[in-house]
Structure formats: structure tokens, C-alpha cells
Amino acid sequence: MKETDYKVTLSLIVNGETRNVRVLPQRLLSDVLREDLGLTGTHVGCEHGVCGACTVLVDGAPARSCLTFAVQMEGHEITTVESVARDGELSPLQQALHEEHGLQCGFCTPGIVMTFEAYLKENPTPSTTEIRDVLSGNLCRCTGYQNIVAAILKAAATLREKGVE
Q: Is the dihedral of CA 152, 100, 154, 88 positive or negative?
């Protein structure tokens, strides 16, 4: 048998769009997103689920795409960083990260954005301690996290002002 004989066809809902892909059953979601669907905003760092760079939302909850088999995602809504900005306008969190200089090289940024896009919907009034606790699942090698925390606090305030929850 050839490798292609083992492939399965998946129907994935990614960023609100149904995408069909034919993959080996052991293919990771991160690889399918990046290589098969061309959504390279999802970064792969450690490949052990520790760094958080590969974080996407599955049914609105953060998930490590480097630990998730794509075949597990059939019937689930997958949201990647590519869908966060709308009509060329950054989300309040992305805008705050920009304004507060909460990113440097940007490698960790997509995972942080996805983590906190979900978290701020759950907790629109986070404390600095709560933010740091959630942020501990996203490693950044460029910063001391101060500006990231400041950006998340600013984004939370902006979302509350706009009445977005």
C-alpha cells in the first residue's frame, strides 16, 4: 500500500469556512493549518505544548494545535489568528499589543492573542495576577512580559468601554 492509501478526508471548519483536506490520521492540526491550509500565523515552537505559540481556539477555547490530531477536529470550530483582525482593523487586543509595545519578534504573539481573545470574553475585568497566571502558558523569549500585561489590561478596558464581551 502507498502512503496515500492511508489518508483520510476531513471537513474542517476553520475561521468560519469549511475546508476539506486529505491527510494521514497522525497529522497534527498545527501542520494541517500551516502546510495544508496555508494559515501560517499559527506558529510551532516547542512541539510539546509548553510554549503556547501554536494556540488556536477550538469551539472558542484555547487549544495547543501541536498536540492535537487534525482528525479530532471534524465537527469543531477552529479559529486561528488570521481571523482576529476584521476588515483590515486590528482587534482591541492586537491594537493594545501594538500601542503598548507588547511584542518584539512576534513569534509568540499569535498564541498570546488567541489565548487572551478567549480569556477576555470569560473574564472582562482581569487582575494583573490573573493575567500573569494565564500568560504563564505562553513563553516569550524577547520580553519581560510587562508590556504584554499592560496591553492585556488596556484591551480589557477597551472591550468594557465598547460593551464587547
A: negative
> Which residue is listed with cell 500601542?
99
- Prediction pTM value: 0.92
How far is residue 108's CA from residue 15's CA, in Å, rounded to a whole number? Answer: 20
Q: Which CATH fold topology does 3-83 show?
A: Ubiquitin-like (UB roll) (3.10.20)
Residues β-bridged to residue 21: 10
Q: What is the C-alpha separation between 160 and 140, in angstroms, rounded? A: 27
Strands 17-23 and 8-14: antiparallel
pLDDT at 101 over 90: yes
| CATH-assigned architecture of domain 92-162 | Orthogonal Bundle (1.10)
Task: Write out pLDDT tens, residues 132-156.
Answer: 999 999 999 888 899 999 999 999 9
